Amino acid sequence: GDSVTQMEGPVTLSEEAFLTINCTYTATGYPSLFWYVQYPGEGLQLLLKATKADDKGSNKGFEATYRKETTSFHLEKGSVQVSDSAVYFCALSGRTGNQFYFGTGTSLTVIP
Amino acid sequence: DTEVTQTPKHLVMGMTNKKSLKCEQHMGHRAMYWYKQKAKKPPELMFVYSYEKLSINESVPSRFSPECPNSSLLNLHLHALQPEDSALYLCASSQEGFQETQYFGPGTRLLVL
What we know:
heterodimer, A: six-stranded mixed beta sheet, four-stranded antiparallel beta sheet, 12 strands, 0% helix, 51% strand, B: 11 strands, 57% strand, globular
């Protein structure tokens, strides 16, 4: 069945460091891929998405490229800020209607 | 507007109480969802409504009872909960169909004493 494997955390970075959070997926066909962010005490916010191979989703300095050949959707940001401290979830929506598959989440802490 | 609202924000209830969580969206979405999220874990799907009909129940105990009065509203009725039901309850909505984006509300943080 469909699934998402996400880099284990927690991740601690200094401000202005480069961020990569790895995400790989297993799915039949061509799923849509998402990154959600959850700040402390809040719900999930859509950060970015991509719906077909080679699409690049981007938002707030974050980017992720849908790579079908490596079944990956890694999240990157060139220079993190303290305000980026949150939990990041990779997710997949595939051919099973109305079903989302989440990764385990990666907790990011950015220190000044 | 991609807003999903949930009330209340926080809820404390005893094991004999009856309470309800409410969720509302005005994006014209015809699929709505309830998720349960424990600390430091991904959301776990509980129920899916499609065109106001229950389409998925992930073997949730009967002490949780969902209701979809109309296409904009989703309720979760709670009765005789256990302390292990304490969690963040998230509502989401999406267009109906495959590969659609789900939009989440801020959640209700539930504590069962």
